[in-house]
């Protein structure tokens, strides 16, 4: 199965992406001037410390309960209460499901606090990208603008793939913030799934049918 990217290097990326070393809400450095990154290379989990004075810890533990993890419905409540979506509509349950799947390394269907902190940093970077092109604060962007943001995040995709993506996530010719985030999550998760199997970084791999279904249907 060929990777939907261009030529040499690791398919789909123009260069090495920054890791998860930024503080919460800090813009990610990017290849496009004044455009924070939303793509990452290592996808390393957040390993920083936290304390009871951390507002995110308070939001998280109030909902997580005794098991210390949140499922999709709990994550939706947690993100809504945190106010990360700002003036945009709260995240849908389906978007929260794929957020969990993006970081769910042990396939529990839930998210721990370190994963939540990583998600928070990613969402902040994606939100800043979206706000940069949503100048009128309508909560939507146009199709060609999503293509520009995807390219600015460092993904090298063919025009055909970009067209398919924007059609999938648009409504009446516009893309809402929730759908934009869902698109970013799925693009990162699928790229991560592919990369783990492309050990030689050639841009193509062979999938066993069952492995392909497990990797894609879970996202």
Automatic annotation (TrEMBL):
GO cellular component assignments: cytosol; endomembrane system; plasma membrane
CDD domains hit by this protein: EFh_PEF_grancalcin
Pfam families, A to Z: EF-hand_5 (PF13202), EF-hand_8 (PF13833)
Q: How does it sit in the membrane?
A: Peripheral membrane protein
User: What GO molecular function terms would the record report?
Assistant: calcium ion binding; protein heterodimerization activity; protein homodimerization activity
Q: Where is the EF-hand domain?
A: 121-156
Indicate where this protein is primarily found: cytoplasm
Keywords from the UniProt entry:
Calcium, Cytoplasm, Membrane, Metal-binding, Repeat
Tell me yes or no: is Repeat among this UniProt entry's keywords: yes
Where is this protein localized, as stated in its record? Cytoplasm; Endomembrane system
Keyword Repeat found: yes
Q: Which residues form a coiled coil?
A: none
The name of this protein is: Grancalcin
Q: Which organism is it from?
A: Monodelphis domestica (Gray short-tailed opossum)
């Amino acid at each position: 199965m060929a990777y939907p990217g261009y030529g040499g290097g690791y398919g789909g990326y123009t260069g090495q992406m920054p890791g998860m070393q930024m503080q919460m809400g800090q813009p990610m450095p990017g290849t496009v001037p004044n455009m924070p990154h939303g793509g990452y290379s290592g996808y390393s989990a957040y390993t920083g410390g936290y304390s009871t004075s951390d507002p995110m810890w308070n939001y998280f533990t109030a909902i997580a309960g005794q098991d210390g993890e949140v499922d999709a419905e709990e994550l939706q409540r947690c993100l809504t209460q945190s106010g990360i979506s700002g003036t945009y509509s709260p995240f849908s349950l389906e978007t929260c499901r794929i957020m969990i799947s993006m970081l769910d390394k042990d396939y529990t269907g839930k998210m721990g606090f370190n994963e939540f902190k990583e998600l928070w940093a990613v969402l902040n970077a994606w939100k800043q990208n979206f706000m940069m092109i949503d100048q009128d604060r309508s909560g939507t962007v146009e199709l060609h603008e999503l293509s520009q943001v995807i390219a600015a995040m460092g993904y090298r995709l063919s025009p055909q793939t970009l067209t398919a993506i924007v059609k999938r996530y648009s409504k009446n010719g516009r893309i809402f913030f929730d759908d934009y985030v869902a698109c970013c999550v799925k693009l990162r998760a699928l790229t991560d799934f592919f990369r783990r199997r492309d050990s030689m970084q050639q841009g193509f791999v062979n999938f066993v049918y069952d492995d392909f279904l497990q990797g894609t249907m879970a996202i």
